[in-house]
Write the structure tokens for this entry.
Amino acid sequence: MAITAPGVLSRPLADIGGTPITVAGLMLALAIVVISFTLSRIAVRLIARLRNRRNHGGAALYILEKLAGYGIAIVGVLFAFSTMGLNLSSLAVFAGAVGVGIGLGLQGVVKEFVSGIVLLFGRELRVGDFVELPTTPAVRGLVWEIGARATRVRTSDSLDVFVPNSRFIEERFTNWTLKGDTRRIHVAFNVASDADKAKVRDVVIAAAKELPFTLPDEGARRTQVWMTSFGDSGLNFELVVWPTLDAVKRPAAMQAAYMWAIDDALRAARIEVPFPQRELRIRSIFGREGDAALAALGHDTVPRKSPPSEPECTPSRNDAAHETVRPEELPPGRSGTGLRSERVGFSE
């Protein structure tokens, strides 16, 4: 006997909790799941596009983007179960038994997912922050995205490093831009022991202030030069300076730019940079000393000449300074400086 199409669609495939699962119900449930996941992707893209166009509210929109993506997909799956006539309470025993087995294998995934949710609503980390993790080698870069499993950190060399979300919950990390303002840095250098300390200070401070990413003196935030120790070959100093937030996010280029500027300034001021020196003295050769010893070895004595005068020192091109002030590559939804002082979280 021929089987009609309606008969095939209403034909039960299985029975779960006393509820028959038909072909029609299964097809409808699959269609709902596909539609819900499609709507989820559309909502995420629309919110992401809105974040890219706005200079404010980026942190709140990022949380809304994640919640919309997860929420629409979960609601769609639950609605698909409902259209098949399944009572969710009847699945409790089945879900519990399956959940124990799956949970043992997916506990790491669940752990990272929950950690990502905690990061989204926490105040310690947000997209656009510059963070450092004490790994080997150390990971330093911009937080580009907080995903369901890992957080994407983009380094200054445009390398994407994926860090498990739980690392930011369980381990120590440094957020360089938590305040959304700036931080103080120390640039070490040394000079000869007979150098004029006041001159060194004035020359280095002037060189640091000429760089475009050095913030002007304001209150307690001042560009300074500290003498830190007596070295084996000279005096050790540190330039203590407050750079802009954009420069802070490029630590390697920033340090190189200050070092280059300090070297140019010291050379122009004729301040000597020391280097390790070793002096070898020969007391006597064949019982003779000085020129007589050289003559015994067959060497002629040559009158000492005064060293030639050094040519005029001109400032050289500081490539690191240009790298530090180049336009910053920002994560999606992070445009301009309006987002740097913004934070979404619970009030203390």
